[in-house]
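Exercise 7 asks you to align residues with tokens for two separate proteins.
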Amino acid sequence: MSWLDRFRAPKAPVTPLQTEAPPAEDQAPAPGSASAGSPLIARSAPAAETAPVAETAPDAETAPVAEAAPVAEAAPIADVAPAADAMLQRADEAAPPPEPAAKGFWRKTWDVLNAPIPGTPSFGMDRVDLGQIAERLATTRDVLVDKVKALVKGRTRVDEDLLEELEELLLESDMGVKVAEGALAHLRAEAKAGRLEPDGVTRALAEFLKGKLGPQAPLDLAAGRLAVVVLVGVNGTGKTTTLGKLAHRCNLLGLKVVVAAADTFRAAAIDQLEVWAERAGVEIVRHSEGGDAAAVVFDALAAARSRGADVVLVDTAGRLHNKANLMAELAKIRRIVDREAPDAPKEVLLVLDATTGQNGLRQAEVFGEAVNVSGVVLTKLDGTAKGGVVFAIKDALGLPVKLVGLGEGLEDLRDFDPDVFVDALFSEKAAAPRS
């Protein structure tokens, strides 16, 4: 029987309950409630004496109200409700999410898919980035590589005139006298042996410089083992910014990070580091401004052990290398680290501004005497013509360049790979950056 037949079929009369009074007018049950169509509702119709429908209805079975009651029983809308709900659900699933949520989701997915595998030492400077790195080194390329190519163009042999002009170009890029003299000696020997023509000078120079940089020296960081990284350097080199970028990268690698705000000397330095820690999503240990920097490091190491952290990153006050009292404070921090984390791998990274060129070498010498520097972070390499200082640092100080800053973004701190760096510097054409 269809729902329409059930609607038309008369129902058996129902005996009203005489013991219950009809509900008050302002308490009448809502349509579709359990009381709708009940005998109490049927009895309430005669209450309105002037209602013609109630007076003329000869039979409760044929009364319009009694006949309408089966509508609630059949509930045709309820039969199609599940299908309608399913259609709405499918429509909601097919609709694109709001724009801000979509951007956040896809950006996070992209970051996760492109992040290095946890436990690997790479911080993103690989051959996939060759074109992007070449573009960031454009200023140094203009001073060095492009001028070398212009110098040898049209030459028929490698002679002393060519080598003298080449030496000038190398010094302009801040490679230093020792590196420049070594490069000229190598090229001169190759030319005398008949193995070098002018069109091969650029390639031969690139191979010589690769050898001067030595192998890659990545940071020794891994999950499940505490490591300590202390950043030192003079004011303005970008220590705090570098620490924030490094914390972000460690977080992407799945490493638990604790930051020690040991720059208690500079006004607002702690607040600045707190902003970076929040952006990177890592914990920070801080004291009040003007406090004991070594005490901050002590507490940070204790917190790292209790929380099972993998890395402690220590930010220190920027100081002039000729300030004996400040250098003594730095040495105290190093003693605390050695005493409280004797078995932990330790890195003391000197942050140098690439735009200062050879002036940074003296800083490296003095800091190395105070805290036993293990490597260099070279910042602002994307905006200087003095990128040749990379080679001078390794040659004069024996310190590897471990990280380089190639921009202002969180992802622009790169693990330094000598081969990739030289290939990007001497590449024929800088490729467009990846979007």
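Second protein for Exercise 7:
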Amino acid sequence: MEEKITSRHNPLVRRAREVREGRDRGLVFVEGPRLCEEAARAGLEVAAVLYTDTFARDERALRLLDSLRPAVEKIVAVSDGVMGQLSDTKSPQGVVLLARRPASGPDSLDARPGATPLVVVLHRVQNPSNAGAILRVAEAAGATAAVATTRTADLFSPKALRGAMGSTFRLPLWAGAEFGEILEWCARRGVRTVSTSLGAARTHSQIDWTGPRAVVVGSEGAGLGREEAQATDDSVRIPMRPPVESLNVAVAVAVVLYEAARQRDAG
């Protein structure tokens, strides 16, 4: 019979909190049935599962738990109070999964041999929900990989995972790159880097996206610095009718990537 945890001071509960808060970077805190299913389908190595009795009454929940039992040592029930204290959302969804953080690094970007590179580089994107949304649109539009520089929000934080809705588990990632390091990586592989700038001479639809490309975006408030933008191979602007002067960073990435997808599909 599976144990039931009723104390928030239980060692597993304490560790789950540390993972949720980013103090244990070896694991990922995955919450809710949808994200837990995505993690399981993506083949993440699951270290532990915590769930409530209320959650386990649902057929979908039982299928999820049954699918995890053969490979997971720790699957434990917790009280509603413990789950409420653990949850990263206002309305706890009844299940939390702790999984080994997937490998991410330069080698991950070569994980799709044969595909023409279309890489998204997040530099100092500080809002985790925006970072997650960028990963989701990157996968949807056919990007081959994503890179997050050292001063970017943690792509595996709970808010970023919710924004990505599973794309984090499937898209090849390089987290913790230095800005110059990723530019050098692109240069060595013939991947031309493209930044977005209000003052760029060409629009996002006036350059060729069919070759190897990397879209480089900066922080929500300031974008890329002047020297950072100048360090990229090309710069483009997204046409906007006045008085609008800027777009949400995830929306801007979507506009650019879908133009790249349109050109690649047409070719």
